Amino acid sequence: MTARKLRYYATGILSLAIAFVVFVVPFLFIVVNALKDKPEASRLHFTWPTETHFWDNLAAVVQARDYMLITAFVNSIVLTVVAVAGLVVFGAMVGFVLQRRPSRWNGLINFMVLAGLIMPPAVVPTIWLLQWLGLFKTLSGLILIEIAYSLSFSVLLFRAFIATIPRELDEAAILEGAGPFTLFFRIVLPLLKPVAVTVIVVQSVAIFNDFTNPLYYLPGAKNATVQLTLFNFQSMFNTSYNLLFMNILIITIPPLIMFLFFNRQIVEGMTAGAVKG
């Protein structure tokens, strides 16, 4: 075996080891502590429980504060589905216009798109604006916030992918009498499936796991999302670590399943524009 192959295998093994330590070990720590009772979990040891309490902990988490976790799951699913649908439609439309309709405003628009990725959100002015619009502490207001904060990333992905679609396709559709909306929704949008899947999966996981935005813009127990239910089992003086880890395990499973099933599509959508453009 040559030295080059040895370095190749060594790099691969090292990468797998780092990934295991960074991602798998914390997840296993969550699992083993979610199976323990309260006294044993409070020690925070990475050991298998002397007696498993999976179903007891699961029932306690689901029933806590009048089944708050179920309400939170409903809120998070509605928030994620509506916000991601808006990101796909608006991101694709903006990316299409920027790529196909160059104008003197493109430089300013590109700057604003990049600024949306770089500049941190202004929380207090945003709360004032939501209060003025009557959208503070509402799910509709948080949906608009999630769309606004994630739109720049979606626009960049869609624009890069649209650059790989031949302009002759647009011209042929226009010659056949297609209007702007027909051209976009019936011709262009179906071709954006690879990058749309990437946006759907990446943004769904990000929005579903979002903690800070619901904390700032959607306070209140009835408005809780899944991440905010973590407050149910921790306090300054007494934290039920077994229930806390069980809650974390429950809300981690949906994004994990999504990544496992759509991992290949995510990579293809992220690299398509860079490879073909």
TrEMBL record:
GO cellular component terms, semicolon-separated: plasma membrane
Record protein name field: sn-glycerol-3-phosphate transport system permease protein UgpE
Sequence intervals crossing the membrane: 12-35, 67-96, 108-130, 142-162, 183-208, 241-262
Keywords recorded for this protein, A-Z: Cell inner membrane, Cell membrane, Membrane, Transmembrane, Transmembrane helix, Transport
Ranges where the ABC transmembrane type-1 domain occurs: 73-262
Highest taxon listed in the record's lineage: Bacteria
Membrane topology category: Multi-pass membrane protein
GO biological process: transmembrane transport
Origin species: Pleomorphomonas carboxyditropha
Pfam families assigned: BPD_transp_1
Known function: Part of the ABC transporter complex UgpBAEC involved in sn-glycerol-3-phosphate (G3P) import. Probably responsible for the translocation of the substrate across the membrane.
Subcellular localization(s) per the UniProt record: Cell inner membrane; Cell membrane
Coiled-coil regions listed: none
Subunit: The complex is composed of two ATP-binding proteins (UgpC), two transmembrane proteins (UgpA and UgpE) and a solute-binding protein (UgpB).
InterPro entries (UniProt xref): MetI-like, MetI-like_sf
Family designation: Belongs to the binding-protein-dependent transport system permease family.
